[in-house]
Design goal:
The chain is mainly α and 146 residues long. It has a single domain (36-145), classed as Up-down Bundle (Glutathione S-transferase Yfyf (Class Pi), Chain A, domain 2), CATH 1.20.1050. Helices cover 68% and strands 0% of the residues. It is built from 6 helices and no strands. It has helices at 3-13, 28-56, 64-86, 99-113, 123-133, 136-145. Residues 26-146 form the GST C-terminal domain. This is GST C-terminal domain-containing protein. Pfam families: GST_C.
C-alpha cells in the first residue's frame, strides 16, 4: 500500500543490491539509500503531485494560481537540493544506482518534460537523468509508464 515500502521489499527480494544490502547495524549505504527514498516519498512525490493537481484545474478555479506558485517553487527548491547532492556524484546515494534513483527519476523526468525549469537550471540533475534514461531497464520501465 505504500510505494516506498514496496520498493524496499522488491529491492530486498531481488538480492538487496539496489537498497545497499541487508538491514544490518552499521550498513551506512543502506541508510543513505533509505534517506533519499524517504526524501522522495515525503518531498518530491507530494510536492510535484500537488503541482500536477493545480495545473490541471480550470484557469478560473479559486486557489489555482496560488497552488501553482507554491508547489512550483517548492519543486524548484527540491530540485536545487538534488542538484547540490549530485554535484559530487553520479547517483543519489553513492557510487551505484539504487532504488532511490528509481523512485525519484520518473518525477524528475515528468518535471523536465513539462519544461517547468529553465533549460540551464539543475545541470547535475539533468546529467543524472540522462544517465538514468540511458539504462535499458529504465527505458523498459518508462515505456510502461507512458
Amino acid at each position: 500500500m505504500e510505494s516506498g515500502a514496496i520498493l524496499l521489499y522488491l529491492a530486498d527480494l531481488a538480492g538487496g543490491r539496489l537498497v545497499g544490502g541487508p538491514p544490518t547495524a552499521g550498513n551506512v549505504r543502506r541508510a543513505r539509500i533509505t534517506q533519499w527514498l524517504m526524501w522522495q516519498m515525503g518531498g518530491v512525490g507530494p510536492m510535484f503531485g500537488q503541482l500536477n493537481f493545480f495545473e490541471r484545474l480550470p484557469p478560473e478555479t479559486d486557489g489555482r494560481s496560488y497552488g501553482i506558485g507554491r508547489y512550483g517553487a517548492e519543486g524548484e527548491r527540491l530540485l536545487g537540493v538534488l542538484d547540490s547532492a549530485l554535484a559530487g556524484r553520479e547517483w543519489l546515494a553513492d557510487e551505484e544506482m539504487s532504488v532511490a534513483d528509481i523512485a525519484v527519476y520518473p518525477w524528475v523526468v515528468s518535471w523536465m518534460t513539462k519544461h517547468r525549469s529553465a533549460p540551464d537550471a539543475h545541470p547535475h540533475v539533468r546529467a543524472w537523468a540522462s544517465r538514468m534514461g540511458a539504462r535499458e531497464g529504465v527505458q523498459r520501465g518508462m515505456a510502461v509508464y507512458g
